[in-house]
Design brief:
This protein is mostly helical and about 70 residues long. It has one domain (about 1-20, about 35-70). Helix content is about 45%, strand content about 0%. It has helices at about 5-15, 40-45, 50-65.
Length: about 70
């Protein structure tokens, strides 16, 4: 299933995984609107979701290897 997460919850999760980075002091949450989803098509193609924490860790590690994050 797709991950829906508030911006503050995402920052809190990242802080717990990577406490040495700097994060915004405050955030403004967006308004939830109806969103289009390609979920059904992706599942038909054999694609599946990964756990949110795994996705975040893989992304941060990739950014570090690319030199985007120090």
């Amino acid at each position: 299933m797709a991950h829906a997460i508030r911006a503050q919850d995402l920052v809190d999760k990242l802080k717990s995984l990577y406490p040495n980075y700097s994060y915004p002091e405050s955030l403004t949450e967006g308004v939830e609107d109806d969103k289009l989803s390609s979920d059904k098509l992706l599942r038909l193609l054999g694609w599946s979701y990964r756990p949110l924490e795994e996705t975040l860790v893989d992304s941060i590690e990739c950014y570090r290897k690319m030199g985007i994050l120090n």
